[in-house]
Fold these 2 entries.
Entry 1:
Amino acid sequence: MENANIKAAYENLVSVLAHESGGDLVNLHSMRRSVMHKLINAERGTVSKRNALRRRLSREQDNKCHVCGCDFKPKGKYAVLDRRIAHLGYVHGNVDLKCNECDRKKQEDKKFS
Ligand SMILES: [Zn+2]
């Protein structure tokens, strides 16, 4: 989708929310937050699904980072889900579990490439 289409879709959404809220600022606030969470879930999947995937990968990777092989903290607390191809989402087969340090290095490498 081109930027003009995104801008038009956004402006339409803002208009719909303003109308549907009936001018009630509390209602508008609630509706914006609800839409925001729904969009985040559409992009990233729900927290419970990502946590289930994290637990599965932690077992499959023997609780070790996919990149450097270090041990994760107990319960995978510091394990980061990393999509190989972003638009394919957080699904098994498209995600690796890595440590914070390896994830941070990847993010830094992206900035300089
Ligand atoms: Zn690592």
Entry 2:
Amino acid sequence: MRREKGKRERSSSVRPDAGFRRIKPEAIKDNPFQAMEGDWFLLTAGDLKNYNTMTCGWGAWGVLWSRPAVFVFVRPTRHTYAFINKNDTFTVCFFSKRYRQALQFCGTHSGRDCDKAAETGLSPARASNGSVFFKQARLVLECRKIYQQDLDPGLFLDPDIGKCYPQKDYHRMYVGQVTKVLYRKQES
Ligand SMILES: Cc1cc2nc3c(=O)[nH]c(=O)nc-3n(C[C@H](O)[C@H](O)[C@H](O)COP(=O)(O)O)c2cc1C
């Protein structure tokens, strides 16, 4: 059966990850130092009906317990904190430089007060792990939460680290097992 031109694009059955190709975690070419603190990323937890996203600049990816893993750090004061605690999955999305303003917005406004997707024009979509990613992302890491721990200031070995916490709102660290990696086929 011949498909009418453009029909697939209009169909509601278009997969949310159309436009992306799946790669293995070990095929990620990005430099993590640049991707994390240099480019920032969006950390998103919840499902399409009820999710929140925030900008992060601190984090890591690598291997733990022989699994590909992402490490993210969320202060308890963030609206996202409740979402990542309540849900078993989350996503980490990286963007090209043209979305810098959108990430700036998501890192300086709270989901308690606004709809970040509506304000930035970012398009949320259902990730295959039930969480939410953004269609404009250039790199998406779908994660399953496998560990969490509150940072203990008593264990800081360099006293300067304490200066990052004038409000004593120590991060909670989450380790996510990377279950899927998507790279955008073309620059959005
Ligand atoms: C560049 C940048 C990096 C940030 N990195 C983090 C981070 O790693 N962890 C964190 O808890 N907050 C971080 N923030 C702050 C949150 O993104 C910010 O407080 C956001 O408004 C929280 O949104 P929410 O209340 O909707 O969760 C960062 C903000 C910016 C601008």
